[in-house]
């Protein structure tokens, strides 16, 4: 453990010394570059108190520029201020004057952190480009080379050490005809599994905002069955991987219809009807015709009516007033063995028992037993608290899998598993350096796997657009895993990895 700590500290200092990115305040304007003309006189003044969020009506279709910050709190685009097509919002003590319209009469080229670069802005619609990706060093040499499952079968565990450009996501986002109609089209690659089915995904979705209370959508999206599938990716503490309990219980991406919105300030809902739990690598002929997958979430933020950009993990935004959230989620699906992914490519979800076995594998529960259909139900409850850079966040899961059908399943008992995860984080240097510790556990009928993590995040440009992460991960017989994740199925022992992430 001491040796690992020394390695992590040395890696941090080496990257810090070698990186030329200055730790300067994130851009507060939407100006495309330093050659743009000076912003015009302010059109809108918008102010908030500590812990509150205020919205100021404005025609922002031509863009927004922050002209003057006159409060004690630094206003950061995407964190303490932002805008949509009809208003500018400020929060947590941000007080500023804004100019409307593009500097110098430009019609493209503005940049909004976490929302990308504006490529076009017309009366008929706009288009922005958003890019996400990261490169990762992974060391699994400390894992046990084999594991024995609950049925006494010994299986190998691959002990990897490699450097990968692990993921690239390119989004094309904007509105068309009316700002109420928005689109998000994206290309999503998992380079670690190039050559495998599902390593490159081209997908997207549409949303129409009737008002803030009703936003209807259709396309490929994540079922809102747990907090990490609410749309907060990639604003997590580690880079692009969940704690093993979250990965074990959660639903995933599918094609479907949804409706979401604000019930009252601080209370949001989201309901989605989908094809199945996880449609990546599944074609239409493999799906049943029941449309019997549904997930829903209800999120309450009582104190500040917000919980950071996209409901992110950790308090990067440095709340001056206690921010709280409480969430409840439910997922129901009738799953068929043909509609379940046959491999563990990225973002696939296979229904597993707690020792890692896939329930649809022939003879898993004994010779001649083959589950071909099953009913999956899962609930989760989460809570989170943020204040002055500190955050404490947790989630509890329960899952029932029953109504088995297939050869030999007549006497097969229902599966019941539950588990939890906890994450604690602190900004050692506001907007620059963050440390965290987290862990999770699955309490199942075929074992009680767990993981424990210690990590550090460095934000060299004082925003969440660039992040360097290093983490020490201790696995206890992981029931989940894939090439894209730092943990394999059956992994037992320590894993060290480090990633450089860009998110602009």
Structure description:
- The chain is mainly beta and 504 residues long.
- It folds into two domains: 27-112, no CATH class; 197-482 and 493-503, Beta Barrel (Porin), CATH 2.40.160.10.
- It contains two helices and 26 strands.
- The protein has helices at 2-18, 244-249, and strands at residues 44-47, 53-57, 64-69, 81-83, 87-91, 95-100, 111-112, 116-122, 125-139, 146-148, 154-156, 161-176, 178-190, 200-211, 214-222, 253-264, 267-274, 293-300, 323-336, 373-387, 390-405, 415-429, 433-443, 450-458, 466-476, 493-503.
- The strands form four sheets. It has a 16-stranded antiparallel β-barrel with strand order 9-12-13-14-15-16-17-18-19-20-21-22-23-24-25-26. A three-stranded antiparallel β-sheet has the order 1-6-3, with no helix packed on it. A three-stranded antiparallel β-sheet has the order 2-5-4, with no helix packed on it.
- A hairpin with a 1-residue loop joins strand 12 (161-176) and strand 13 (178-190).
- It is globular.
- The two termini are 35 Å apart.
- Residues 1-40 and 103-107 have low confidence and may be disordered.
Radius of gyration of CA atoms, rounded to a whole number: 23 Å
Low-confidence stretches: 1-40, 103-107
Span from first to last CA? Answer: 35 Å
| Average pLDDT | 86
Q: Please state roughly what percent of the residues sit in beta strands, choosing from under 5%, 5-15%, 15-25%, 25-35%, 35-45% or over 45%.
A: over 45%
Output the keywords.
504 residues; mainly beta; Porin; 2 domains; 16-stranded antiparallel barrel; 2 helices; globular
